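Weekly sync, protein design subgroup
Attendees: M.S., D.O., the rotation student, P.L. (late)

Item 1: inverse folding check
M.S. brought a backbone from last month's batch and wanted to see whether the design step gives back something sensible before we order anything. D.O. pointed out we never logged the input encoding, so this time it goes straight into the notes. Structure tokens as presented (222 positions):
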């Protein structure tokens, strides 16, 4: 059983995040031993340098938060981030194309980023933005991500109208089984939420409140 910290991608993706705030998140990730620190691509070199002597991974986001960049740009962005020290890539699939039923386009977009990521030894998580989809579309998004060789499916960017729900995690877990990981992200602020999502099948939690969640867990054990 993983420690709770190793479920968490400690996250700061706010567009106005300052260097001081990024440094704090990186320091916290190292101190608490989170699975990764997830930051925007600009901050990848800084995170990589600071975490070089730890087991905390550097995660970044691609095609974020809309998913509507061209595949060429997503691949270039992923390659550059990996070259600068990222080890995990969270990409947003093309939400509009998925909703319209252009599955081949969605799959090809993911596959191109997956190939680039895996060629450099990285891990790919595909953000499906579940709050924008029907249940049928959520399942189809997961199936396409699996067919395109992704490593994880992820619920949300945290920038849409809704975040992670137990319902969505259960649905996504049923779609991918144990073949892919499931990352729950968006609006996770408490230990109770994290526990419920893990029990539903999440194998990773994306949260900016990672420290608070761990402190709550420590207090619960006292």
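Designed sequence read out in the meeting:
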């Amino acid at each position: 059983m993983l420690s709770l910290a190793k479920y968490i991608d400690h996250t700061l993706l706010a567009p106005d995040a300052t260097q001081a705030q990024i440094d704090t998140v990186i320091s916290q990730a190292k101190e608490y031993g989170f699975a990764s620190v997830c930051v925007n691509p600009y901050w990848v070199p800084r995170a990589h340098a600071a975490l070089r002597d730890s087991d905390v991974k550097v995660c970044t986001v691609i095609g974020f938060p809309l998913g509507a960049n061209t595949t060429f740009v997503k691949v270039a962005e992923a390659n550059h981030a990996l070259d600068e020290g990222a080890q995990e890539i969270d990409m947003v699939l093309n939400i509009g194309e998925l909703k319209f039923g252009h599955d081949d386009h969605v799959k090809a977009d993911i596959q191109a980023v997956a190939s680039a990521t895996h060629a450099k030894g990285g891990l790919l998580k595909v953000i499906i933005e579940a709050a924008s989809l029907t249940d049928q579309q959520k399942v189809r998004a997961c199936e396409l991500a699996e067919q395109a060789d992704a490593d994880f499916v992820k619920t949300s960017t945290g920038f849409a109208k809704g975040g992670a729900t137990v319902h969505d995690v259960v649905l996504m877990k049923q779609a991918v089984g144990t073949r892919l990981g499931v990352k729950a992200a968006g609006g996770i602020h408490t230990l109770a939420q994290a526990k419920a999502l893990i029990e539903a099948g999440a194998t990773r939690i994306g949260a900016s409140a990672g420290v608070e969640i761990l402190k709550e867990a420590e207090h619960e054990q006292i």
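Discussion: The mean pLDDT is 97. DSSP finds nine helices and eight strands in the chain.
Action: P.L. to compare against the previous round before Friday.
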